[in-house]
Write a structure and sequence with these properties.
The structure holds two protein chains of two kinds.
Chain A (H helix, E strand, L loop, with lengths): L4 E3 L2 E4 L5 E6 L6 E8 L3 E9 L2 E4 L8 E7 L2 E6 L8 E8 L8 E2 L3 E5 L1
Chain B lengths: L2 E4 L3 E5 L4 E3 L1 E4 L5 E7 L5 E7 L5 E3 L5 E5 L4 E6 L8 E8 L6 E2 L3 E6 L1
Parallel strand pairs in B: 2-12
Antiparallel strand pairs in B: 1-4, 3-9, 5-6, 5-10, 7-8, 8-9, 10-11, 10-12
The chains are: A mainly beta, B mainly beta.
Chain lengths: ~110, ~110
């Protein structure tokens, strides 16, 4: 298995532009998570899905952020419009169901908003 | 609600010395505990996990952790570190039905 695949690896965009981050989870995993990592706040859970359905989006910072999972093999995190404070590394992770399973993380997307 | 506290933000250590990275958690129910490692410019990798049974858990790269229920701790240890162990280490706790909750991380810096 290729693991969790995220694209792009790096994204530089201007303030006000729309940004779309993509994630392909491990086949067979029924949970998908989006995290954001910054120096100041560490790892923050933004949203997670179970069987393509959003379960908890309480970590999404504001309405500018949205996430979708149209099928079991693809998810997107969209920021519109982007702001400099959105600059961070965004990680996608997937997992099997069951509290005893850890997550498999992708390599992340480093977003810079200028 | 669960929370995770990593007591040290940075731990400098010399090569071949032992190291302990501390982690405490708070939860009112049974939890599952994890340690992850993040090398520069990479995602997080699972080092080890405690689910039940023996309180001493062995992981990859020679790391181990001990679960102490009375002290609500899950400290990570390695008897002899290498330069290549330089990385960020994250402790995480999970309750049934909830997502992983991560600590803020401990930066381990191994020098010759």
């Amino acid at each position: 298995d290729a693991g969790v695949i995220q694209s792009p690896r790096h994204e530089v965009t201007e303030m006000g532009q729309e940004v779309t981050l993509r994630c392909k989870p491990i086949s067979g995993h029924d949970y998908l998570f989006w995290y954001r990592q910054t120096m100041m706040r560490g790892l923050e859970l933004l949203i997670y899905f179970n069987n393509n359905v959003p379960i908890d989006d309480s970590g999404m910072p504001e309405d500018r952020f949205s996430a979708k999972m149209p099928n079991a093999s693809f998810s997107t995190l969209k920021i519109q419009p982007s702001e400099p404070r959105d600059s961070a590394v965004y990680f996608c992770a997937s997992s099997l169901s069951g509290a005893n399973y850890g997550y498999t993380f992708g390599s992340g997307t480093r977003l810079t908003v200028v | 609600a669960q929370s995770v506290t990593q007591l040290d933000s940075q731990v400098p250590v010399f090569e071949e010395a032992p190291v302990e990275l501390r982690c405490n958690y708070s939860s009112s129910v049974s939890v599952y505990l994890f340690w992850y490692v993040q090398y520069p410019n990479q995602g997080l990798q699972l080092l080890l996990k405690y689910l039940s049974g023996s309180t001493l858990v062995k992981g990859i790269n020679g790391f181990e952790a001990e679960f102490n229920k009375s002290q609500t701790s899950f400290h990570l240890r390695k008897p002899s570190v290498h330069i290549s162990d330089t990385a960020e280490y994250f402790c995480a706790v999970k309750e049934s039905g909830y997502a992983l909750n991560f600590g803020k991380g401990t930066s381990l810096l191994v020098t010759p």
